[in-house]
Backbone:
C-alpha cells in the first residue's frame, strides 16, 4: 500500500501570498496598478533546499486584476471567462479549491498555456514579461529515486502588495506546494478516488437540480462519467484505479445560477456548488409626466345589485395556547395506578366495614 | 366493596399493560438491532461528514422505518436503534431523533421511559460513556455531563446547540422531561 503524505513545506507561503497580498487589503485605498509595466514570477519546486531540475511548469492568465477601494478585484478573462467559478472574496481554502478547479478544466479542455518553462538546476521556473493579472501555475510530476512529487496548482496575483501594503511588487517568487508518495510499481498498484457533492444554496435551494454529472479524468482525458443524486447520497467511489495516473474530477454542466469549486481532500474530491443569488434588476426609468386628463363623461346607469353571498361560518377556535410547541410525551401511564389502587382499597375497606356493620 | 375491587382490578390491569408495553418495546428494539446491517469498515481517508458536516445522516430502512444508527449506554447495558424522525408510533418502537445531527454535534434523542429504553437514564453519572454509531460505522463518543429536568415547553432549551448530545425522556409522572446532556469525549 502506498504511503502518501502531504508535505506542507513552503505551501503556507503561497497561501499567505494570496491572502495577504491579494485579498486581505480592505482598509485603505490602493494606488492603481500599472498595467503597462512588466512583471515576473519565479516558481520554486524542490525539497530540503534541493530544487528539482527540468520539471515543466505551465502558466495561464486567468483573470484581470485591478485595485479597488475594497481591496483587489479579479475578472475572469480569455478561455477562463466561460467557467462558472467564483474568483472574488475567497479564503485560503477557497483559493486552493479554485486552483484545483481551474487546473482540471484547463487540462480537460486542452487549454494552451501562456508559456511553459522548465525548472533550472536550482529548481526555479522563471516566467518573465508578464502583464498584471491572476495566474494559474501548474507543473508536472517529478520522480526522484523511489519518490514521486506532484506539484499542486497555485494561483498567483501579479503584482502583489509589499509587506507594508504601501506599494506593488511586480517581481514575485513563490514556492510550489506538492504531494509526495512512493513510486508505483509496474502497473500493479491501484488507488481509490471518491467524489462528494456539497450544496451551498440555502438562499435558492429551489433551483437545485435532481442530479449532476461528474467526469473522472485520467491524465486529463475523460475516463468515466457518473451521475450524483439524492439516491446515491451525492457521492461515488471509484475502485482499483491505476496508481500511476493523475486523477482529477470536473463537474459536467454546472447548474444555472451556481458556481463550482473542486477541492481534493485525501482521496476525496469535494465538489461544492454555490448558489449565486440573481442580480438585482436595474432601476426602472422614471415614468413620463402624465398628460392632462380629458373631460369626464356622464355616469353609467347603475345595475341591479346582486344577492349577497352566504356568510361563511367562522372556524372553531383552537385550544388556548395550542400553537405552543411542546416536547413529546414520552412517559407510560403510571400516574393513575396509585390513585386507582388507593381509591379501590378505600372503597373496599368502607364496603367491608359497612357489610360487617349490617351483619351485626 | 365491588366498586373498590373494580378499581383495584383497573390498577392491576394498568400495571400489566405498562409492563407488557415495556417488554414489547424492548423486544422490538432488539429485533430491529438484529435486522440492522453490519456497518461497513471505516473507509480510508477523511470521513464524508468531516468534509460536509451539513450532510444528511444516512439511514437504513427496516420494516418501513428509517434508522440513523445505534446508541450504546454501557453503564445501563443498553444498545438501542435510533429512528431518523420522531413520531408517537415510532417512540413505541425505538428511541427517535428529536432534532440535530451527530455530524453537527447537536443530536437530540427522545425515547419512552420504558426500562428497556430510557427509563434508567436518570441514574447516569457525569463522566459515564455514551456512544452513537451511524449507519456507515462512524463512532461518536460522548461523556455524560449533567442531568437536568426541563418543562414540556422548553423546546428551545432542549435543542440549544450548547451540548453535543442530548437524551431525554419523561419523568415518571410525565409532567417534566428528564434530560441527560453529553459532551464529546476528548481522546
Residues:
Amino acid at each position: 500500500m502506498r504511503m502518501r503524505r502531504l508535505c506542507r513545506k513552503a505551501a503556507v507561503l503561497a497561501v499567505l501570498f494570496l491572502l495577504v497580498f491579494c485579498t486581505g487589503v480592505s482598509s485603505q485605498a490602493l494606488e492603481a496598478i500599472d498595467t503597462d509595466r512588466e512583471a515576473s514570477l519565479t516558481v520554486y519546486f524542490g525539497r530540503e533546499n534541493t530544487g528539482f531540475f527540468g520539471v515543466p511548469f505551465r502558466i495561464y492568465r486567468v483573470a484581470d486584476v485591478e485595485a479597488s477601494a475594497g481591496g483587489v478585484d479579479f475578472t475572469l478573462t480569455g478561455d477562463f471567462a466561460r467557467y462558472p467559478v467564483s474568483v472574488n472574496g475567497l479564503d485560503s481554502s477557497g483559493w486552493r479549491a479554485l486552483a484545483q478547479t481551474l487546473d482540471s478544466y484547463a487540462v480537460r479542455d486542452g487549454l494552451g498555456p501562456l508559456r511553459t518553462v522548465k525548472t533550472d538546476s536550482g529548481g526555479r521556473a522563471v516566467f518573465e514579461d508578464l502583464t498584471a493579472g491572476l495566474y494559474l501555475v501548474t507543473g508536472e510530476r517529478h520522480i526522484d529515486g523511489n519518490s514521486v512529487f506532484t506539484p499542486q496548482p497555485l494561483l498567483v496575483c501579479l503584482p502583489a502588495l509589499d509587506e507594508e501594503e504601501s506599494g506593488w511588487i511586480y517581481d514575485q517568487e513563490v514556492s510550489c506546494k506538492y504531494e509526495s508518495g512512493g513510486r508505483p510499481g509496474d502497473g500493479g498498484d491501484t488507488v481509490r478516488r471518491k467524489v462528494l457533492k456539497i450544496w451551498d444554496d440555502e438562499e435558492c435551494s429551489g433551483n437545485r437540480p435532481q442530479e449532476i454529472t461528474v467526469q473522472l479524468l485520467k491524465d486529463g482525458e475523460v475516463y468515466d462519467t457518473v451521475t450524483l443524486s439524492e439516491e446515491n447520497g451525492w457521492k461515488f467511489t471509484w475502485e482499483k484505479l491505476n496508481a500511476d495516473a493523475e486523477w482529477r474530477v470536473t463537474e459536467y454542466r454546472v447548474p444555472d445560477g451556481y458556481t463550482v469549486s473542486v477541492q481534493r481532500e485525501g482521496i476525496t474530491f469535494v465538489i461544492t456548488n454555490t448558489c449565486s443569488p440573481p442580480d438585482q434588476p436595474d432601476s426602472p426609468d422614471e415614468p413620463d409626466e402624465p398628460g392632462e386628463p380629458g373631460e369626464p363623461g356622464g355616469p353609467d346607469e347603475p345595475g341591479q345589485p346582486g344577492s349577497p353571498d352566504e356568510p361563511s361560518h367562522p372556524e372553531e377556535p383552537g385550544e388556548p395556547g395550542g400553537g405552543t410547541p411542546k416536547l413529546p410525551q414520552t412517559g407510560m401511564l403510571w400516574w393513575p395506578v396509585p390513585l386507582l389502587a388507593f381509591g379501590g382499597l378505600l372503597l373496599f375497606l368502607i364496603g367491608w366495614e359497612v357489610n360487617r356493620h349490617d351483619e351485626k | 366493596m365491588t366498586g373498590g375491587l373494580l378499581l383495584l382490578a383497573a390498577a392491576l390491569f394498568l400495571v400489566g399493560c405498562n409492563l407488557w408495553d415495556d417488554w414489547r418495546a424492548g423486544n422490538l428494539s432488539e429485533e430491529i438491532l438484529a435486522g440492522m446491517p453490519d456497518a461497513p469498515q471505516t473507509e480510508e481517508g477523511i470521513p464524508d461528514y468531516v468534509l460536509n458536516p451539513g450532510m444528511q445522516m444516512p439511514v437504513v430502512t427496516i420494516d418501513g422505518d428509517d434508522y440513523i444508527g445505534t446508541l450504546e449506554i454501557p453503564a445501563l447495558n443498553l444498545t438501542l436503534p435510533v429512528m431518523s424522525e420522531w413520531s408517537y408510533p415510532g417512540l413505541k418502537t425505538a428511541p427517535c431523533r428529536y432534532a440535530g445531527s451527530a455530524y453537527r454535534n447537536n443530536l437530540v434523542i427522545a425515547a419512552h421511559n420504558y426500562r428497556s429504553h430510557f427509563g434508567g437514564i436518570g441514574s447516569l453519572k457525569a463522566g459515564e460513556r455514551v456512544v452513537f454509531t451511524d449507519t456507515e460505522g462512524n463512532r461518536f463518543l460522548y461523556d455524560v455531563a449533567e442531568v437536568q429536568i426541563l418543562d414540556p415547553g422548553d423546546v428551545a432549551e432542549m435543542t440549544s446547540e450548547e451540548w453535543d448530545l442530548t437524551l431525554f425522556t419523561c419523568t415518571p409522572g410525565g409532567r417534566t422531561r428528564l434530560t441527560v446532556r453529553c459532551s464529546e469525549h476528548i481522546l
In short: Residues 210 and 248 of chain A are 24 Å apart (CA to CA). The helical segments of chain A are 11-23, 92-108, 336-359.
